[in-house]
Amino acid sequence: MSQQMPERIPGGGIDLSHLAARGSAASGAPDGTRPSAPAGGADDRSGAGQIVDVPDLVLDVTDATFEQIAQLSAVVPVVFDLWAEWCEPCKTLSPVIERVTREFSGRVLLAKVDVDANPGLAQAFQAQSIPTVVALVGGRPVPLFQGAVPEAQVREVFGQLVQLAEQQGVVGRVEAPSVDAGDDEGDAPAEPAIPPAHLAAVEAAERGDYAAAVAEWESVLAKAPADAEARAALVQVKLLHRLEGRTADAIRSAAAADPGDIEAQLGVADLDVAGGHVEDAFLRLLELFAATDAEQRTAVRERLLELFEVVGAADPRVIAARGRLANLLY
Question: pTM of the prediction?
Answer without folding.
Answer: 0.52
